[in-house]
Amino acid sequence: PRKVSLSDLLFSRKLPPPFHFQRQPTPISTDFKFFNGGCGGAADLTLLPSQVCLLCWDMEEPGQLKRAVIDATAGSISGAISRTVTSPLDVIKIRFQVQLEPTTTLALLSKNVYGTSKYTGMIQASKDIFREEGLSGFWRGNVPALLMVMPYTAIQFMVLHKVKTFASGSSKSEDHIHLSPYLSFMSGALAGCAATVGSYPFDLIRTILASQGEPKIYPNMRSAFVDIMKTRGFRGLYAGLSPTLVEIIPYAGLQFGTYDTFKRWAMHIQNLTIQ
User: Fold this and answer.
1) Count of structural domains within the chain
2) What is the pLDDT of residues 63-117, one digit of tens each?
3) Would you say the C-alpha torsion 217, 223, 225, 230 has a positive or negative sign?
4) CB within 8 Å of 209: residues ≥ 6 apart
5) Residue 3: strand, helix, or coil
6) What are the Solcar repeat spans here (predicted)?
7) How far apart (Å, rounded) are the C-alpha atoms in residues 267 and 65?
8) Among candidate residues 199, 201, 189, the one with its CA nearest the CA of residue 159
9) Cα(128)–Cα(74) distance, rounded to whole angstroms?
10) Is residue 243 reached through a cis peptide bond, with omega within 30 degrees of 0 on the bond before it?
C-alpha cells in the first residue's frame, strides 16, 4: 500500500491515484481498513480490488462548501454565546484550580499546614470577586475565550465534515450518520485535535487572565501575549498542549461517536414505529 500524509487526507483537493476504498454491500456501513503508519502522522490505505470507486475530492457536491461554512458559522456563534453566558462559572472554576490552599471546609481544619484559603466555596468566591474586581471580574479573559471558541468550533465542524466525507465517500450528512462507531470516533478525535491546535494560544491566554485576581499581573491580552513571547518564545503559546490533546482525543471522539450512534438508533426506532 502507498502512504498518504494526514494533511493530504484532510485538506488535499485530490489524492494521487490509485487510492480506493471499499463499500460494504449494505448501505448501512461504509468502512475503511486503516493500518498503523508509525510516527509522523502517516496512514496506510489498503487498495481493494473489488467494489471500489475512485477517491478524490472532486466528487464533492457544489453545495458542500456552503453547508460547511453555514455549520462553521452557526457553531461559532453558538459557541461564543454559550462561552459568554458561562464565563462567571469558568472564572470561579479556574480560581479554584490555581489556588494552592484547600477549598473544602474539612481541609480548612489543616490551615496551619496550608495557610489561609482565599476561596472556600462558590458563593464566597463570587462575593469576593464581585467586591474586589466588580462585575467585570466574572468576564475576565472572555475576549481571548471568544477568540478561542470561535475558531475552535469553526475548525472542528469543517474538519469533521471533511473527514466524514472522506470516510463515507459522500458529502451528504445522511450518509455520514451510517459510519461505523470507530470511524465516527476517529473523525471526532481528529476534528478535536485540529481545533485544539488551531485555537490553543487563545485558550492559554484566557486561562492566564482568568486565573489572576488583584493586583493584576497582565492588564490585558496583549501584555500577556508579549510577555509569553519574550520569556518563552512561540513554543510558550503551546505550553500544556500535550496533556490537552491526550484529554481531547477521547473527549471529542466519544462526543461525536456516541452522538452518531444514538442518532442512528433513534432513526432506526423511528422507522420501526412508522412501519
Assistant:
1) 2
2) 666 776 777 788 778 878 888 898 899 888 888 877 766 665 555 555 554 556 7
3) negative
4) 140, 141, 144, 218, 221, 224
5) strand
6) 66-166, 179-265
7) 26
8) 189
9) 36
10) no
Q: What cell does 249 get? A: 482525543
Does residue 167 share a domain with residue 67? Answer: yes
Neighbours of 162 (CB within 10 A): 23
How many beta carbons lie within 10 A of that of residue 133, not counting itself? 16
* Helix, coil or strand: residue 5: strand
Q: Is the pTM of this model over 0.70?
A: no
Q: Which of 42-46, 79-83, 196-200 has the lowest mean pLDDT?
A: 42-46
CA 68 to CA 165: how far, in whole Å?
Answer: 11
196: CATH:
1.50.40.10
Q: What is the pLDDT of residues 168-197, one digit of tens each?
A: 887 776 667 778 888 889 999 999 999 999
Pair 190, 218 in one domain:
yes
Q: Which amino acid is at 144?
A: P
Domain range for 28 is: 1-59
Among 244, 243, 239, CA closest to 227: 239
Where residue 233 falls (left for φ over 0; alpha for ψ -120 to 50; beta otherwise) is left
The separation between CA 21 and the C-alpha centre of its own chain, rounded to angstroms, equals 27
Q: And the C-alpha cell for 229? A: 513571547
